[in-house]
Structures are given as structure tokens and as C-alpha cells.
């Protein structure tokens, strides 16, 4: 395993990482979710800790161990994730890799929904808060560097550029998550680093290598920002 970020690069920095999917309840026994494994977000938390940062990892439900040397906060829903991120502030760097569910059920039942002679349940959806946009737009307590992901299945770069502008973050790691790529749940990732000044396409790397390269990049940017 290559360690790409020099140790001590992020010494004295606090990094908040979000990772994994969120689960949005339908009733006490059912939920809406997505295929995120949390591997990329967890690898980033680990790489940041290895680079000497104090790391708070806010994780949705995943089948991964808590990374060593990282404070991990476990949440279920998007709204819980936002609250946990707000509680973890202030931070120098935010890397929001979670695949946050875009919608939740507005009328989630307090009891298990029962079948009723073929009548279908009437679930109405409402949009979840956008955690990356909310934190990137803070006027007080905004981390100096905000990194988002753009999970796309088509027009990857174009969509990522739109997201960068819309959400107000500094960097976007854009990736193609079409089923054929095997990114969702897989071990490797092909990402494009999108900033206001352009696009840099990285070769296909393991998720650990993507994490190391991102932390090296972020460390260089934060270093340059020093007075
Ligand atoms: N994100 C977030 N909160 C949300 C939705 C997304 O923090 N409610 C973050 C993700 O963690 C990621 C970035 O925003 O860093 C982009 O997520 P993505 O799902 O690609 O973008 P959306 O804005 O949700 O747009 P869409 O799913 O329609 O492409
Ligand atoms: Ca989304």
C-alpha cells in the first residue's frame, strides 16, 4: 500500500469526513437507502489521520470497522448526519463523501405499515437538507477547504462543474458510478478533480490511493493558504 500523503502534512488540522449511505425510515422496520459502501469516505478519514490530522468521521450505516485513530460518529439519516457535522465544527477541512439520500418519506409511519387487501401505501417524499451546500455556505465556521463528490452516471464533468458552482465548495471529486464501472461497492475509483480553474483526471486507483492523493492535494492547498 502506497502512502501518498507525507506524515505530518495535516498536523494540527481538524478534518470532518462524511461517509457511507444514509437510511431514511419508511416505518420502524423499513428504509430507503443506496448502494454506497463507505469505502472511499473511510479511506479518506484514515489517510487524513495518517497525515497527522484530528479526524471526525460522520458515518452512515456501513459494514466497515471504525478507522483507527479517528473519532467516528454513527448516524442513520441525512438530518442526523447534518446535525452531527454541525456539532463537529469548527474544522479546517471538510470532505463530504457520503451518498446522502436525496429524499426522505415525509409521512413516515410510527408503526409498521400493514398490507390492506391490495391497497398500496401512499408514501410522499420530501427533499433532505444538502449537507455539503449548507456547510459550504456558512458565513461563520466554514471550513477553509470544502471538498465534495459528484456521483454521476452520465456527463460526469459537466454535472460536476454545475455542482461546484451550486454548492459553493472548493473542490469536487467527480466519478462515474454507472453499474458497469463497479465503483459502488468496488475497490477502485476513477475520479476527475474539478475546481474553478480546471479539471484534472486521475488514473484508475484503489480507493486507498485516491484517498492518499486527495489528502496530499488538500494538504498542499492548505499549506499554501498559510499566512
Ligand atoms: N450531498 C450532501 N447532502 C445531500 C446531497 C448530497 O452533502 N443531501 C453531498 C454529497 O456528499 C456529495 C455532493 O453533495 O459530496 C454531491 O452529491 P450528489 O448526490 O452527486 O449530488 P446532488 O446535489 O444530490 O445531485 P443529484 O443526486 O441530483 O445528482
Ligand atoms: Ca444526490
Relevant terms:
227 residues; alpha/beta; 8-stranded mixed β-sheet; two-stranded antiparallel ribbon; 26% strand; binds cytidine-5'-triphosphate
Short account of what is shown:
This protein has 5 helices and 14 strands.
Portion of residues in beta strands equals 25-35%
**Gap between N and C termini, in Å?**
34 Å
Describe the largest sheet: 8 strands, mixed
Bound small molecules, by name, code or SMILES, are: cytidine-5'-triphosphate, calcium ion
Q: Which strands sit side by side, in order, in the main sheet?
A: 5-4-1-6-9-10-12-13
**Mean pLDDT across all amino acids:** 94
What's the helix-strand series? EEEHEEHEEEHEHEEEEEH
Number of helices: 5
Rough shape? globular
Q: Give me the secondary-structure category.
A: alpha/beta
Instruction: Specify the oligomeric state.
Output: single chain
Low-confidence sequence ranges? none
Helix content: 25-40%
Give the strand tally. 14
CA-atom Rg in angstroms: 18 Å
Function: Catalyzes two sequential steps in the biosynthesis of coenzyme A. In the first step cysteine is conjugated to 4'-phosphopantothenate to form 4-phosphopantothenoylcysteine. In the second step the latter compound is decarboxylated to form 4'-phosphopantotheine.
EC number: 4.1.1.36, 6.3.2.5
Domain DNA/pantothenate metabolism flavoprotein C-terminal: 10-218
Protein name: Coenzyme A biosynthesis bifunctional protein CoaBC
Amino acid at each position: 500500500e502506497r502512502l501518498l500523503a507525507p506524515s505530518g502534512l495535516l498536523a494540527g488540522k481538524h478534518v470532518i469526513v462524511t461517509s457511507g449511505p444514509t437510511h431514511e425510515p419508511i416505518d420502524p422496520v423499513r428504509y430507503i437507502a443506496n448502494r454506497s459502501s463507505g469505502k472511499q469516505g473511510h479511506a479518506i478519514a484514515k489517510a487524513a489521520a495518517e497525515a497527522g490530522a484530528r479526524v471526525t468521521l460522520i458515518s452512515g450505516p456501513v459494514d466497515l470497522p471504525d478507522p483507527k485513530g479517528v473519532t467516528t460518529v454513527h448516524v442513520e439519516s441525512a438530518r442526523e448526519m447534518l446535525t452531527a457535522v454541525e456539532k463537529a465544527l469548527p474544522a479546517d477541512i471538510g470532505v463530504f463523501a457520503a451518498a446522502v439520500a436525496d429524499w426522505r418519506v415525509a409521512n413516515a409511519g410510527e408503526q409498521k405499515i400493514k398490507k390492506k387487501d391490495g391497497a398500496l401505501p401512499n408514501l410522499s417524499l420530501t427533499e433532505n437538507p444538502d449537507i455539503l451546500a449548507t456547510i459550504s455556505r456558512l458565513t461563520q465556521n466554514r471550513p477553509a477547504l470544502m471538498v465534495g463528490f459528484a456521483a454521476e452516471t452520465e456527463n460526469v464533468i459537466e454535472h460536476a462543474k454545475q455542482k461546484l458552482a451550486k454548492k459553493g465548495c472548493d473542490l469536487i471529486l467527480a466519478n462515474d458510478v454507472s453499474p458497469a464501472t463497479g465503483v459502488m461497492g468496488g475497490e477502485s475509483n476513477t475520479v476527475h478533480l474539478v475546481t474553478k480553474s480546471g479539471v484534472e483526471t486521475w488514473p484508475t486507483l484503489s480507493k486507498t490511493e485516491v484517498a492518499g492523493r486527495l489528502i496530499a492535494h488538500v494538504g498542499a492547498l492548505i499549506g499554501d493558504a498559510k499566512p
